[in-house]
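Changelog entry: the glutaryl-CoA dehydrogenase (ETF) record was regenerated in this release. Current contents:
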Amino acid sequence: MPATTSDVLNLDGLLSAAELELRDTVRRFVQDSIKPHISDWYESAHFPLDIVQQMGALGLLGMHLTGYGCPGRSSVEYGLAAMELEAGDSGLRTFVSVQGSLAMSSIHKWGSEEQKTRFLPEMAAGRLIGCFGLTEPTAGSDPSSMATTARRDGDGGWILAGSKRWIGLASVADIAIIWAMTEDGVRGFIVPTDAPGFTATPIESKLSMRASIQCDILLEDVRLPDAALLPGARGLRGPFACLNEARYGIIWGAMGAARDSYEVALAYSLDRLQFDKPLAAYQITQLKLVNMLLEIQKGTLLAIHTGRMKDAGVLEPVQISLGKLNNVREALDVCREARSILGGNGITLDYSPLRHANNLESVRTYEGTDEVHTLILGSHITGIPAFR
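Regenerated structure tokens:
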């Protein structure tokens, strides 16, 4: 199949018929159910809860997990879905990531058989929403210093105390995966959000990720039975394994935001007349468009290669760091450059690039900042950890 105007490398040729079909299905969903409304959702800081079960029906929740009602799709298919969702908005892709890559993955990787059977089918269908509580007000990039504690009570259960910050979905979630320090190190717990002492408060006045929900969580002596403990997770390996699932999805998602911004800028430049000819006829505009296209093609190729490695079971965490660091950084530059082609019109919600750029400021920070991923790569290539 010949390459399209914007797929110069014919990257579609690297995808199977089934992968293309899945991508196109999600693309239609985004076109029909997200793009017509996203400007209003973003402006009003509204997350559309009614879209959750629609996503479940499409098999987008926990889609890379197998069994327990989960779709069992490949890593590449999950990545393609993430790319299309973020072409709509980072906030909607983030919901799928928090639900599937973080909350559901925690239970799937580390939960008991009873926990998996009880929670995963309902979460895959979108009838039960989960969140993932790791970050704290004073412990973002350094989770080993978390202050939230879980101690044994006299009845053999647990008492959780502490706080979490920037926790996606917490105020609308039914359960929270909370990571806490115990006498035996970091452990994970499934916490019902209606438990006495659990309070989730949405963070207001955000300039980014406005069509999604992030919260502060306060845990005031929340009592849990022993059955709430995730038995397989011990130490930071537990949450980090889930974070790497989310970071992997970002490698793809960021390219969706970049592609949408590029396509909007390209269409605008072909239609907008200045000095009696289209913006696209000027050399400077073509330079901007070409530079954007180069990074999108390279970043998408990186995502596909990373996905193939993940499906082969050979993907390493440092490779995920490389992909997340590169693709988010380049996507943010693409969105800003696309906004420049739109001129003053580009600062309105009539066009997507600045909204995408604002969102990517959050994506650049969560699941590991640029600085953290740089240090991970620096340690890998020099053999010298420089975190402290």
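The domain at 237-382 is CATH 1.20.140.10 (Butyryl-CoA Dehydrogenase, subunit A; domain 3).
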